[in-house]
Amino acid sequence: MYIATLIATDGSLAPDISDRARLALADAGCAPLVGRWIDEGYALDLTFAADPEKARLVLEPLADVVVQPEAGRAKKLIIADMDSTMITIECIDELADYAGIKAEIAEVTERAMRGELDFEAALDARVALLKDLDAAAIDLCYAERVRIMAGARPLIATMKANGARAVLVSGGFTVFADRVAAEIGFDRALSNTLGVAGGRLTGAVARPIVGAATKRETLIAEVEALGITLAETLAVGDGANDIPMIQAAGLGIAYHAKPKTAAAAGARIDRGDLTALLYAQGYKRADWVQ
Q: Active-site positions?
């Protein structure tokens, strides 16, 4: 059996959503059973017997929806991207603002995240433009610009309270990722190291660069270390460099993602915040750890 979870993290699911969803599934030949609320107005589960991809396509117009096998929905490992996923910004763009070149850097970031540019080459090019920026801008940027994404803290806290491990893997920088990971409660953080010498950025990034391959490799390594299966994992991100880990995970979620990432993922959250990932795993609000 499969389960489709319709989600509105603002509580806006209409009372008739179950009937509308069941009708859509029936018309698609998915043999739906009765729906049940996880939290009324916020998340509804519908079990059904056939064709999960078709079910997803017919339900997506109604709300954020996650379709997956009914068994094993609560995951034992989460691998998450940082920029525009666990935090609301792209750190390199905001850091560039302190150098007066945000527009130039942000355009390259956007193209890289859409998968139009090679990630490593684009990162090198952007960091090179930050050469000689006062390193004090890093702390200033963190204090003034970095904001934790809505739902990030309860997502990680609740999963960890239920025995899961949480790993942050970012194509961004340790000077941001290590602090974000600690603030949210991740068990581990992996990211790139900015070159700093004499109190200024050198314009270089240490090797090896954490990119798409590293994200997937980290997922696989964590699975092996924990002695679990890929089916027991969740991966979430928004950019093209997140696609390999999203596709490898048992539940891969594109979060407010670029079109290429959204198209490649098995599930997408376009409307709600990160607590949608708790509903996808069947956790009621009363069971969340804030």
A: 81, 83
